[in-house]
Amino acid sequence: MDAEEVRTEWIERSGEYSPDYYAYYGADEVSEAIRERIEERVGSDASVLELGCSSGRHLAHLHDAGFRDLWGVEINETAGDVMREEYPDLAADGSFRFEPIEDVVGGFDDDRFDAVFSVETLQHIHPDDDWVFTEVARIADELVLTAEIEADEDVTYVRESFPLYHRDWRATFTDLGLEEIESAEVGRDTVRAFRSTE
């Protein structure tokens, strides 16, 4: 699959791994791991951006914990409708862009967000779009969190239909000038925390 085909797969996604699917499951142990690390490192007054927020289950968990400056980027436009139904307070209080990450991140100012995180989203960025990670490091003032499935293979396929591009996330972000300050296994994900060294 090329980069455009990967994006189209997620734009049109319904059923399994769709915004409805994730709203049904709600917050989980990864949501809590993200909340704990953001609260500890930058506090609940922080401006926080989730890349690939879907219908907002992780951001809703932050909202319930008192965070208010919450932003999300999500490729699937139906996620906004699901969010308004399932997480109406988040939908009313947060700021959201329903476009591909690749079309949005370059428009944010340097150090725009205190924290930027993703949960099983950056692993869907096609290798042709690796420049996105430079933008993630640029717009995060203090903290970058990744919760991604890590594997030895370069690429694996979910249900034999769409790819997961496995990367060495530690190397990806330390090569961009960030320092890894923590890593932990949380369910099937490896949660990694990086901070700016500037």
Automatic annotation (TrEMBL):
Q: Which GO terms describe its molecular function?
A: 2-polyprenyl-6-hydroxyphenol methylase activity; 3-demethylubiquinol 3-O-methyltransferase activity
What does the record list as GO biological process?
A: methylation
E.C. code: 2.1.1.222, 2.1.1.64
> Which SUPFAM superfamilies does the protein's record reference?
S-adenosyl-L-methionine-dependent methyltransferases
Tell me which domain of life the UniProt entry assigns to the organism this sequence originates from. Archaea
Residue stretches making up the Methyltransferase domain: 48-139
Quote the Pfam families the UniProt record gives: Methyltransf_25
Keywords per UniProt = Methyltransferase, Transferase
Does this entry carry the keyword Transmembrane helix? no
Q: Is Methyltransferase among this UniProt entry's keywords?
A: yes
Annotated protein name in UniProt: Class I SAM-dependent methyltransferase
